[in-house]
Amino acid sequence: MGHAGRERAAAGFSGGGGVLVDGEAEWHVVYRFASEGSALAWEKSTSRAQWDARLEGIAREAERRRVRGARAWFDAQTLTPAPPAPPSKWKLWFVNMSAVFPPVLLFNLTVLPYLGDLNALFRTLLLCLCVTALVTWILMPRLQRFFRKWLYPSLQALRGRHKRRTT
Q1: Nearest residue to 38 (alpha-carbon basis) of 16, 13, 17, 58
Q2: What would the DSSP string read from start to end of 41-68?
Q3: Which of 47, 65, 81, 85 has a CA that sits 20 to 30 A from residue 159's CA?
Q4: Helical H runs in 12-152?
Q5: Tens-digit pLDDT profile for residues 51-61
Q6: What is the pTM of this model?
């Protein structure tokens, strides 16, 4: 209802529009204008400001993109989203320490006392082989799942937004 009236108002600036829904939670409002000047006139118009005020609280602008030609707009929609930013170094350090410290301590308390006669090089190699295997295949996958929301909060916020709107 609100978008249709806004589209009619935009048509008065040698333009028009339409709404596309992606099936999840995002609505894409597409305005097309005969010229760059018409688009700028619409953006600066009091009519648009009035429609923005009417739609406040109902819809929120998340992103704005300007392209020339319909093909460019649709091509831009097919690009894969940017990957989330990597976690900070101290968070990675904490998760790694949480994965490495327990098996090293356990190995030192249970296995190394029985290997005292073994060459230090072979003891260290055995420790590294066992701990690396435990950390790689057992501990890190579980810790990464456990700390996922803490390590990647921006990704979780995006996923949570879609879940809230679609349920």
Answers
A1: 13
A2: HHHH-HHHHHHHHHHTTT---------S
A3: 65
A4: 36-44, 46-55, 70-77, 89-110, 120-134, 140-146, 148-151
A5: 778 777 777 77
A6: 0.47
